[in-house]
C-alpha cells in the first residue's frame, strides 16, 4: 500500500474508506459533498451513519458545475460551523468542495463576487478530504477549481487550496460506465501532455507528466478491456494525480483553450473536448519541437488512434460546425501557455486535422 506526503497534502490508498475518512476528520461538523449516484447506491447514508459528529449532505452536484448552483449551495451551509469538508466523487464534486471550503472562513462576499473579482479564496481553517471516484481532472491535487456559467457562456477558473487529504480506493471506480472512465482518463492524458508543451514547464513538472503518461497510457487500455482490473484502475488514479500535480505548476495550454467553447456551446464532455486535438497538435509541430520524448509520443499516438475519438466527437458535433461557428475562440489565458504563438486560424486548422 502506497502513501505519499506532499506538503501540505497527504495522499494514500485505502480499502476501508470509512476508517480512512474517520482517521482524518477533525472534531466538529462535517459537510459531505457528493453526487446523486452515491446517495442512490447507499454510500451517502452509510457515511452519514458511521462518521463521527453531525454530517450535512450536499448530493446534487452534476458535471460542469454552474456558478449559480455553487452560490446557492454555499448559502445553505455558510452558517453551519463546518469543520470538515469531505468530497466523494469526480472532478466536478471536488471543484465544488474546494470553492465552498474556501468560502467557509466567513467572507462577506458572495461566490459570484469573488469569482468575478478573480480573488484567490481563503485557505480553509478546517480539514478538507477528497475521495476521487474518477481518474481525470486531478482536482484532488490542483490549487484551482472550474465553474461554468451557461447564462453568460463563461468558464471561470478560481484559485483555491487543494484538499488536505486524498484517499484512493480503486473499488469505487469499478462500476463507472465506459465513457465516464474514458473521458476522465483523456482529461488526465491531456493535462500531462499540455504540461510538457508549455512555457511554464519545469524539471519537476516534466517528471510528474512523464510519470502520469506512463501510468495512464498503460492503465487506460487495460481498464477499457477489463473494467474490474483494480491494479489498472489504481494506475489511472495515480496517473491523474501526477498529471494534476504537473498542471498545478504549469497550468493547461492550447488543447484546453480549444476545448472550452466546445463544452459551452456543444456540451461536449470536457475530457473529450480537450483531448481530441492532441494527436493533430503533436503531428503538426512534431514531438521534438514540442519537447516530448519520442517513446512517449509514439505510445500516445498509438493509444489515441485505437480509441477512435473521431467517432466519440461525432456524437456531439461535426468538424465543419466547429470551425464555421462564430463563437469559436481561443482562451488566451490557456493558449498563451503553449510553447509556440498560435491564433484562432491555427486552431481551426488543428480541429479540421483531428478527424
TrEMBL record:
Species assigned in the record: Planctobacterium marinum
Domain Fe-containing alcohol dehydrogenase-like C-terminal, first and last residues per copy: 182-302
Pfam families associated with the record: ADH_Fe_C, Fe-ADH
Keyword annotations: Oxidoreductase
Gene Ontology molecular function: any one: alcohol dehydrogenase (NAD+) activity
InterPro entries, per database record: ADH_Fe/GldA, ADH_Fe_C, Alcohol_dehydrogenase_Fe
Lineage: superkingdom: Bacteria
Protein name from the UniProt record: Alcohol dehydrogenase
Coiled-coil portions: none
Amino acid at each position: 500500500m502506497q502513501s505519499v506526503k506532499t506538503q501540505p497534502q497527504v495522499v494514500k490508498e485505502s480499502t476501508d474508506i470509512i476508517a480512512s475518512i474517520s482517521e482524518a476528520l477533525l472534531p466538529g461538523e462535517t459537510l459531505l459533498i457528493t453526487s446523486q449516484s452515491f446517495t442512490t447506491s447507499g454510500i451517502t447514508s452509510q457515511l452519514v451513519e458511521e462518521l463521527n459528529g453531525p454530517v450535512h449532505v450536499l448530493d446534487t452536484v452534476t458535471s460542469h458545475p454552474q456558478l449559480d448552483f455553487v452560490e446557492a449551495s454555499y448559502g445553505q451551509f455558510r452558517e453551519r460551523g463546518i469543520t470538515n469538508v469531505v468530497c466523494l466523487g469526480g472532478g466536478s464534486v471536488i471543484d465544488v468542495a474546494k470553492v465552498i471550503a474556501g468560502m467557509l472562513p466567513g467572507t462577506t462576499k458572495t461566490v459570484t463576487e469573488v469569482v468575478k473579482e478573480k480573488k484567490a479564496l481563503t485557505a480553509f481553517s478546517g480539514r478538507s478530504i477528497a475521495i476521487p471516484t474518477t481518474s481525470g481532472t486531478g482536482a484532488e491535487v490542483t490549487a484551482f477549481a472550474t465553474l461554468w456559467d451557461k447564462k453568460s457562456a463563461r468558464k471561470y477558473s478560481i484559485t483555491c487550496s487543494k484538499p488536505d487529504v486524498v484517499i484512493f480506493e480503486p473499488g469505487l471506480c469499478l462500476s463507472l460506465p465506459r465513457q465516464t472512465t474514458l473521458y476522465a482518463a483523456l482529461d488526465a492524458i491531456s493535462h500531462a501532455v499540455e504540461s510538457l508543451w508549455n512555457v511554464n514547464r519545469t524539471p519537476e513538472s516534466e517528471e510528474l507528466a512523464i510519470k502520469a503518461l506512463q501510468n495512464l497510457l498503460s492503465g487506460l487500455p487495460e481498464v477499457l478491456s477489463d473494467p474490474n482490473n483494480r491494479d489498472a484502475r489504481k494506475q489511472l488514479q495515480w496517473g491523474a494525480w501526477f498529471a494534476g500535480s504537473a498542471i498545478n505548476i504549469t497550468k493547461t495550454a492550447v488543447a484546453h483553450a480549444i476545448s472550452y467553447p466546445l463544452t459551452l456551446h456543444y456540451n461536449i464532455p470536457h475530457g473529450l473536448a480537450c483531448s481530441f486535438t492532441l494527436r493533430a497538435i503533436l503531428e503538426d509541430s512534431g514531438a521534438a519541437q514540442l519537447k516530448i520524448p519520442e517513446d512517449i509520443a509514439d505510445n500516445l499516438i498509438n493509444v489515441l488512434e485505437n480509441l477512435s475519438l473521431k467517432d466519440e466527437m461525432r456524437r456531439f458535433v461535426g468538424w465543419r460546425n466547429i470551425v464555421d461557428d462564430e463563437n469559436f475562440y481561443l482562451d488566451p489565458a490557456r493558449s498563451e501557455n503553449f510553447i509556440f504563438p498560435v491564433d484562432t486560424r491555427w486552431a481551426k486548422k488543428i480541429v479540421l486535422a483531428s478527424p
